[in-house]
Design brief:
Layout (H helix, E strand, L loop, with lengths): L1 E5 L3 E8 L5 H13 L6 E10 L4 H16 L2 E8 L2 H14 L5 E5 L6 H11 L12
Parallel strand pairs: 2-3, 3-4, 4-5
Antiparallel strand pairs: 1-2
Helix pairs in contact: 1-2, 2-3
Length: 136
């Protein structure tokens, strides 16, 4: 399941659960259609807290989509995760697409202000604060 919301800064995307056949292809097409409407730089907040890793075919589809967005007006991406496996997958997609410099990862398990931190990055370009767990 996915949800794409057009915002003042660009897009807020939430991806969760098990993907129906062809769902990530529909997501990419819908996202790219919305992004084509932007005539100025835009950013994305991508919430992957409830997502599962994509198939290798969908991994390639996401990578190609990010590359096309970067060639367009994409400025910044904040990706929110709780799973190290998903973070690794998302980093691979971004590295292969060339978006790693524009992307910041926020682990919602370690950062209770994850949404505030993500919005600071996508709207203002302010680096997310590093939150370290207290040592007991």
């Amino acid at each position: 399941m996915y949800k794409i919301e057009k915002t003042s800064y660009g897009l807020c995307v939430r991806i969760a659960g098990i993907y129906a056949e062809g769902e990530l292809a529909r997501y990419v097409a819908e996202k790219e259609a919305i992004c084509a409407e932007f005539d100025k730089p835009y950013s994305m907040l991508v919430d992957l807290r409830e997502a599962i890793p994509p198939s290798s075919e969908d991994h390639q589809r996401l990578q190609d989509s990010q590359r096309r967005q970067l060639e367009g007006n994409l400025e910044r991406i904040a990706i929110v995760v709780i799973s190290p496996i998903l973070e690794f997958n998302a980093r691979q997609v971004g590295f292969s697409a060339g978006t790693e410099d524009a992307t910041r990862f926020i682990n919602a398990n370690r950062n209770p202000d994850w949404e505030k931190q993500a919005l600071r990055w996508v709207i203002h370009g302010l680096e997310p604060e590093l939150v370290t767990p207290a040592i007991k």
